[in-house]
Protein 1
Amino acid sequence: MFDVIIHNASLRFGNHCVFEDLNLTLKGGQWTCLLGGSGVGKTSLLRLIAGLPAGETTGKVACQDGLSVNHRIAWMAQQDLLLPWFSVLENITLGQRLRRNLVDMLTRRPVLSAEVQDQAMSILEKVGLTEKAHTLPQNLSGGQRQRVALARTLMENRPLVLMDEPFGALDAITRLNLQDLACELLQNRTVLLITHDPLEALRLGHEVYHLQGQPARLTDAITPPGKTPRSLANNDLMSLQGKLLDRLRHESFDERAEGQ
């Protein structure tokens, strides 16, 4: 496990400065959660960390162990991004197929080694989808599709996981269940989760930050008490949720007022 350090990061689109001199440390083996209004630069920060920036950037992203973040990142987006013509098993092993460039000459479909197939089936068992291995995405529920996306992330087996609102489109109960599952299966990974949901951030995050303003700045970290995933019966958690909601609500009101 290693820390990931974002040092003096800045992003501009022409004359518009999204954020500048932004410093953040993602602690090794922990979840860092990032809240903020739409358009404040949360996804742009994820892209900068992943080496996929758009716009003019400065600053440095480095790992505490001295190695590059390149090839050490898995990404889980809000959309499941499943290929509709591939089965569940084929979707979660897409990275392995592309990197190995092995194709069955008869079916023209990528070939998997027995080792990779065993690994994939083991992960599908963990996410509760063993019986759906050969099912096409259109025959899955929204929650099942997002579990496939989680399985694909696990198949990449990277130490740093960037998550861009992966549970945002799900109903409340499915979202809670997926939060618990992700927390269990991504133990000992360094995770940065973007979310609009204060409760989600407080349940999962070892540290919770709020990105706000123009240019955007990070608030001091909130460190929720207790072990993750935290119980909804935790009174301290509910109190923190209320404070965060109030902060986000006033931020949204202030932005609307400035635009008038």
Protein 2
Amino acid sequence: MHRFKKLIIAASVMMAFSGAASAATVLNNWEFDPNGPAGAGPVTVNEYLDVNGNGFIKITPTGDGSIGSAYTFTQFSVFNSVQYDSLGQLFPVTHGVTITAVAETTGTGVFGGSFVFDAGGTFKIYSDSGNNYGSTAGIFGANVGNLIGSFTTLAGGGGVVDGSGSPTGNGQITIDAIAKPGDLTPGYWFAPGGSPDLTDSTVLSFAFTNANTTGSPTSTMISEIICQGAGFTGDGCGAGTYANVGGDHFFVSNNGQFKIALIPEPASLALLGVGLLGMGLTSRRRKAAS
């Protein structure tokens, strides 16, 4: 019976999240200030920030590794955004900063099938006046500067992979995440028209990237992203020469879009209510056990 209650709670939480996501509409003409409160003012983003990056995926088969068998994975990725809406509006030129991000996620998949992300990963966004991206500052220069937004990944998203676990040719990957009130730094993110500041709102993000396996990452990418960021200890990190190994680990390049949406307040309250329900049932169960 306790297990059944836990399943009900988990299902309720997922329904609440999916309901909130379906009720939220991707924002058009939202305001974004790459420099924050000290900047000259925000830009109007019609729909998305352009993103480019690289990532390392480590796969752990949970079956025999054949087509149709399952696996788990971890992913460490770095991104930068120097323009929005593919308009060539370059932040380093117009605002003197580069927008960067680091994503750390886990998930499950099927060889020759699809994969999805687990809930609880992170997608952290920075504003870097030093334009360090691609350097050895921090991790590939992607996590230095001002932290301007912390998103937590939601269960789902994902994409399709081939028999080795690699994304299919130019395969699209989706990462859905959520920022709760206080997760966005004031002065950077604004609703259409420039008000309100979104730091007190519940904001969904949608990152859509086309991923391609890269066989020859640079030495800086290997040392910074693979070894330092992902914590890989195999060939290329201390000894030997790095190489992708199908069904075990590989390096990818990404490019795509980063969009946001607001969760309507009633949905936020519903999420809170479900969370309190879960806490209440857990508390009662603990009392009964004692």
Protein 3
Amino acid sequence: MADKIWAGARVHLTEVDPGTGALCGNVGLHVGDDPSLVRERRRALAAALGRDVVWMDQTHSTRVELLQVRGGVPWSVDSEHALDRPAAGEWGPVDADGIVIDARGCSDAPALAVQTADCLPVVFSAASGQVVAAVHAGRRGLLGGILARAAQRIRALVDGPLDALIGPAICGRCYEVPADMAAASEGLMPGIRGRTSWGTPALDLPHAAATSLTDLGVRVDIDERCTLEDSGLFSYRADPSCGRQALVIIPA
């Protein structure tokens, strides 16, 4: 998908490239792909966006890191160190499943990327796109409150409206889970339990996330595409050897 303006920022979603391999278009370094090919795709992405990109080492945690730009270099406010620059166009990876960057006063602040292949990619925008976040919210992270944590970190920086965009993920019609997992998840987040299109227990992560964010006063948009149903997107459920797409947010 091409860049689009959203809530004052820009957003971009990488997709599967035409080809026969399970990794065509992959931007993840942890899926068995040739690292040199992944680095080249990431470099090309940064060049197309006109910004370097901060990547995360995602582990299904609820950790959300705050970044600032100091002397042209992104810094972790929490650990007080500059991010690594492993290759042209890249910063990180940040050991977290969510990153917030305060780009006020910095016209060329780096973009933030979240990688997924069924989990929820969520980006946030506040202060007319000058304070943004990217969050990886799988089942564990969502139930653990990572989206509320990201919203809290942003609101500690700025007042005013807060927007969230939930990117393509596996939908509630397709995310089959054991009955006990569905029941336990419902106990933690009422409304998340559902049924697959073939009648078995399921979880509806996108709409549960949207409800929880709306309850926090966040304005929510959803890209309703299902990663399992859309051949242009990577899906771990469809192919465990697949690559990862990235939802990227570029500060204003």
